[in-house]
Amino acid sequence: MTAMPDQDVEMGRAPAPMPNKIRTQHVSVYYGDKCAIKDVSLDIESNRVTAFIGPSGCGKSTFLRCINRMNDTIDICRVDGSIVLDGTDIYDSKIDVVQLRARVGMVFQKPNPFPKSIYDNVAYGPRIHGLVSGRGETDDVVEASLNRAGLWDEVKDRLQDPGTSLSGGQQQRLCIARAIAVQPEVILMDEPCSALDPIATARIEELIDELRANYTIIIVTHSMQQAARVSQRTAFFHLGDLIEFGDTEQVFTNPIEQKTQDYITGRFG
Amino acid sequence: MTTLLIVVLLGLSAIAFQTGRKKALRATAGNIAPLHSLPTYYGTYVALWVGIPSLIVIGLWLAFEPQIINALLLAALPGDVRGLSPAELGLQINDIKNHAAGGITSSELSPRLQEVADYYLGLRQNGLLGMTIVAVAAGVGGLAVGWRHVTSTFRARNHVERTIRVVLIIASSIAILTTVGIVLSLLFESIRFFAQVSPIEFLFGLQWSPQTALRADQVGQSGAFGAVPIFAGTLMITIIAMAIAVPIGLFSAIYMAEYASSQFRSVIKPVLEVLAGIPTVVYGFFAALTVAPAIRGFGEGLGLSVASESALAAGLVMGIMIIPFVSSLSDDVINAVPQSLRDGSYAMGATKSETVRQVILPAALPGIVGSVLLAVSRAIGETMIVVMAAGLSANLTANPFEAVTTVTVQIVTLLTGDQEFDSAKTLAAFALGLVLFIITLGLNVVALRVVRRYREKYD
Question: In this structure, which CATH number among 3.30.365.10, 3.40.50.1240, 1.10.3720.10, 3.40.50.2000 belongs to the domain B222-458?
């Protein structure tokens, strides 16, 4: 494990700025004629948890899905502007989307383990990217990934059971283990706790905080408490516009924009 | 007469509907609210009282008229005719009936028999007239009874709903009972067959030659009923058909579900389903006139001897026929795989084919197996293509270039034409039919169970 860069970041203390991992400039997304995201520019800092919040339909998930080009799978979707990951534009025609997605992993709203064993679920990514050869190496990667996702102790005796046999919270941690098994640099999380109970949610939130040491994390959430608990930076979207983006503490305690104020105090949303 | 009866009964029902409705409304001085049911329920109730009794009368008449008239006819016959043997008596009665109907008779009728024929004609006409009168009387009587029941507190809705339920139950029992009847007749005829030929010989014998001797000294009519060559032929043609249909159908389903654009899909899917709408007899002559000679020519080019009616030709064309089954069912199953699984795989950086092979197909496998099993049972039961393209000779062979025969072809040849219905030869058709029924039933049950288990998993 690499050294934890800023373990001292807690709510109530302004975090020291980190180098930018992702820069997005003038990103607009269209579904057919409909504009889902309008001219959004923001920078994602390395080894931080950045939260996207906003009411339903505000485009936060759409924007998240631009960062690993998942929107490519939707025929009518078009993305303008540039998204730069470590100095390379990911929408450049030379970029191989397979490699991009190996660097930018994703965890979805609903746990979606593949119809395979727990072991094969985790080994799926390393195998298709040729990161492992032989049984021994695969075993090591599976164990390490499940360990990092905090699931190893619960499943080590039943690795050959189907992934769908786990509980909802375990399935979601399996999906996180699956994502980190290919050693991504960025993990995108699209409302990862919305289908889970409070205890499972607390486990995932703890896990997100631990993963921050090694990965840059972007999380979309409906829960403002969750955003406040797990993130260091928060972006507030409304109707496709980026309204406000800043340190989580500042956004929640002293928002600049009236709309942000209204949203976080529950006046709409 | 019958048309008139229908018109009268319909008119009577309409009148009953109106009067029932009116009476209910009159009972509450045109107010709907105090009535127990809506006025139309009262109308329907009275109309049912017209329809059901008269339908019962008509049904009873249809069921018992022939027996009663026959008995009366028999009683009216002169004594010397009645003393004839049953076969001759039957001929005479048929002659009388044909004469009465104005048809051709086997011999000129004697004047006395002509009298009987006229009597028979009169009986039938009077019977019909009587039935009509009774039916209409039942309808009118029913109208009166129903009309008397109508009061403002009468629960017409409950009665109508109960009647509707009974009608629906009768309809579904007819469907079920017909199936049961077919199965039972198959079973009983098969039992008669197995009384003549042992089941062991039928199921395991290697020689099929169903021509039984009519005379003791006839040659070449051995009457061997070993059905293994037929089962083997069926199996071979089915395997050839599935070898064509499963890969092509499955691959086209994968293409349509995962690769094709939605516009292309909206064109190609109906086109594939047109294949399923082609009558099998058309496939049959395509097989017999185009594919079989082509295969023969191809085989001869390679120096093989190929029968002009080869298992390969029949199997190939049957496979083409089944492609739309496999592709359409598999396409539905693949589409039912949740999008979240695809997203999950793509987000891992998997390519389309990796996603299809490692995520979508495993998830869809039970449904695909189910669709293949349904296609197999369809292939086993398919008749027309094999009748036209596979031939009749019951060869026990593993060579697809030779002619083989199938269960369905044998049933067709055993039962078509003039056949006595109690010989082992015709009864063998029922035994074959029973085997066919058991196999396809088993396959369908397994297939449906597999598909259902799959549904439970993802809905």
Answer: 1.10.3720.10
